[in-house]
Amino acid sequence: MTPTGRTRDAGWELGVRRTIPVPSDVVWAFLVGDGVTVWLGETALPERIGQSYRTSHAVTGELRGWTAGRRVRLTWRPAHWEHDSTFQVTVIPAATGSTIALHHERLADQGERDHMLVHWRAVLEALIDRLVPEVPPED
Q1: Measured at the alpha carbon of residue 117, what is the angle toward residues 70 and 6, in degrees to the nearest 5?
Q2: Rounded distance, CA 122 to CA 129, Å?
Q3: Which residues form a coiled coil (predicted)?
Q4: Rounded percentage of the chain residues whose pLDDT exceeds 90
Q5: How many domains does the chain have?
């Protein structure tokens, strides 16, 4: 039996997603605007396919795909890794708002997958905290 997250040809992968009561156009505008620092880090999101980026935490990569209003796909490589991986953030319209889906593949092993799963879960929670306003307490 194949362990969870092991792929046939792309190493290890993970995905986290959550549906929130926010329209997809609002989520998208945030993800490619002020929200870039939440999911990618302190950097400018590349404007063209093939353009590279470098974050303040020494993560490097290049933009590989862009579907406006839907998905950003890029390579993702921290300074201490010896390989590139691929990360994408997707916005999916849902009946109750939008689903934010984070997917990371081409991870080296189970340990790297476990580490990144913790990271991306925290990132997803941070995105939601910024997108979904606090509900005031009832009187």
Answers
A1: 90
A2: 10
A3: none
A4: 86
A5: 1
